[in-house]
Amino acid sequence: MEIVSRSLAETEEAARAFLDKLKPAKGRATVIGLLGELGSGKTAFTQAAARALGIRAPVQSPTFVIMKTYAVSGKWQGSPLTNGKGDPFCPWGNLIHIDCYRLNKADDLLHLGWDELAADPANLILVEWPERVGNLLSSPALKIKFEVVDENSRKIIYDEK
Ligand SMILES: Nc1ncnc2c1ncn2[C@@H]1O[C@H](COP(=O)(O)OP(=O)(O)O)[C@@H](O)[C@H]1O
Ligand SMILES: [Mg+2]
């Protein structure tokens, strides 16, 4: 799938469409690597995904704090996610936003409790700059690639599985 988003609203649509098709990983967290240069829209996409999941808290870039966890609240407001019967449904209890920009090696992420987070099927984990921590995310993780097209346009590319 290759989408050209021409605004934040279109990026929000893209995030909803992505989540709508995203299959939860079985028996472990669902991990998504977000690739692309600074300003390509990785954080913007995560913010859009949070809104799609009904998260009301403002989602800031975790560059300085490395990791932020947002509960997907019981006050589920509905989104395009469905359980196949048209009922609003969310398979995840937490959205975890990690920015590895300031990390240098896999150990840095392990020290943040990565193994435990990655083992929990209730977690949807979006990771900016996963390449900074080597191959810790491992091959089953999905990846989304972001590219700057021009000031207001961003390309969003991912494999549909
Ligand atoms: N179509 C678009 N989709 C997403 N962000 C956009 C778009 N057009 C412009 N932008 C701007 O690009 C910047 C993306 O920043 P950010 O998401 O923090 O990037 P990253 O996390 O990849 O460094 C934001 O300032 C955002 O407003
Ligand atoms: Mg960012």
Summarize the structure.
The protein has 161 residues and is α/β, with parallel strands linked by helices. The chain has helices at residues 8-21, 42-52, 106-110, 114-119, and strands at residues 2-5, 30-35, 67-71, 94-99, 123-128, 142-150, 153-158.
First-residue to last-residue Cα separation: 10 Å
- List the ions, cofactors and other small molecules found in this model: adenosine-5'-diphosphate, magnesium ion
Strand arrangement within the widest β-sheet reads 1-7-6-2-5-4-3
What is the average per-residue confidence, as pLDDT, rounded to a whole number? 87
**What would CATH call the class?**
Alpha Beta
CATH superfamily: P-loop containing nucleotide triphosphate hydrolases
Query: Percent range for helical residues?
Result: 10-25%
Structure description:
A seven-stranded mixed sheet has the order 1-7-6-2-5-4-3. Helix 1 crosses helix 2. The protein is 22% helix and 26% strand. A hairpin with a 2-residue loop joins strand 6 (142-150) and strand 7. The longest helix is centred in the first third of the chain and has 14 residues, at 8-21. It is globular and about 35 Å long. By secondary structure, the protein is an alpha/beta fold. The mean pLDDT is 87. It has helices spanning 8-21, 42-52, 106-110, 114-119, and strands spanning 2-5, 30-35, 67-71, 94-99, 123-128, 142-150, 153-158. It binds adenosine-5'-diphosphate (ADP) and magnesium ion.
